[in-house]
Amino acid sequence: MHPQLKSSASMGKNKNSRTGFPTSPQPEIVEEITHSTHSKHPLKKVDLPDLFTCTGCKEYGSGKRYACQQCDFQLHDFCASLPSLLQNHPLHGQHQLVFHAKPKQANAGISWPKCDVCNKSTKGFTFRCRACSFQMHPCCAKLSTEMNFSVHPHTLKLLPPVNTSSSGSDTGIPCSECKKGRSGRMYRCKVCDYHLHAVCAKDLINGLHDNGIPHPEKPNTVGNTVLIASKVFIKFVGGFIEGAGNGVGEYLVDSITRGRRSRRLRTENN
Ligand SMILES: [Zn+2]
Ligand SMILES: [Zn+2]
Ligand SMILES: [Zn+2]
Ligand SMILES: [Zn+2]
Ligand SMILES: [Zn+2]
Ligand SMILES: [Zn+2]
User: Fold this and answer.
1) Rounded distance, CA 204 to CA 128, Å?
2) How many angstroms does the Cα of residue 90 sit away from the middle of ligand 4?
3) How many angstroms separate the alpha carbon of residue 192 from the centre of ligand 5?
4) Nearest bound ligand to CA 200?
5) What is the pLDDT of residues 175-185, one digit of tens each?
6) How far does residue 200's CA lie from ligand 5's centre (Å)?
């Protein structure tokens, strides 16, 4: 087998040249795996700068991933090779954690159970404790009690959990990266007054930060995307009308309402 021949015929390379991604190292490493949750097709290791949702953990990612070349199935590189058990994990050393491919059921069908590290919903791959209710995302399992991140020159230490779990309210300490107060665990610098959310630290692991992608604020659902898109459209049209005075703006509004009216008329006529 010639992995390089296989690489030159792959669609990954075409994509790279089309998007003008010159930093991609030249001979591209071809690595194919078969994952238990997607056994019908092999997954190929690729490194692309776009935002994706991991089919395994349902969280965002960018950069390195394992992708199916035949359907819309992509896994974080770390989600593709998770151990079935975690022993002595720094964030939950007292009990063994078991990998689950399927999430716990949503509470009364309303909200998904939360991760004990980042306080975000767990909708896919999780590590769960058998002895207590602790659970966490695969990405959160990559966090430790003391870490060095590229965004800060000093070692950060994870603060103990704050007891705000039921209300989900934040710790009140603004994070030095996102400048917001958010729930979930938090890191503090041992040297200076720098703070970092665990949830913000995840973007330093999942490739979003490396590829310059800000964390999308809304959950990745079609409904929200449509909502955001229509809001942006309304804002744009509104701004346009304001700026255009009473010439083009009026015509635009007129044609929109007329379009609606004529559609309605047509329906009534039928
Ligand atoms: Zn994942
Ligand atoms: Zn597939
Ligand atoms: Zn988490
Ligand atoms: Zn436990
Ligand atoms: Zn933050
Ligand atoms: Zn510092």
Assistant:
1) 23
2) 12
3) 16
4) 5
5) 999 998 889 99
6) 5
263 Cα–ligand 3 center, Å: 47
pLDDT in tens, 41-88: 999 999 999 999 999 999 999 999 999 999 999 999 999 999 999 999
How far is Cα 257 from Cα 268, in angstroms, rounded to an integer? Answer: 16
Ligand nearest to the CA of 120: 3
Q: CA 143 to CA 165: how far, in whole Å?
A: 20
For the chain, the domains span 222-269
Q: Which helix (H) or strand (E) segment is 195 a member of? A: strand 195-197
Locus of tokens 């004529």: 262
Q: Please give the model's pTM, rounded to 2 decimal places.
A: 0.69
Structure tokens at 223: 């409904």
How far does the centroid of ligand 3 lie from the alpha carbon of residue 245, in Å? 49
User: Contact at 8 Å (CB) between 132 and 95?
Assistant: yes
205 Cα: distance to centroid of ligand 1 (angstroms):
11
The DSSP symbol for 79 reads G
User: Greater confidence, 29 or 116?
Assistant: 116
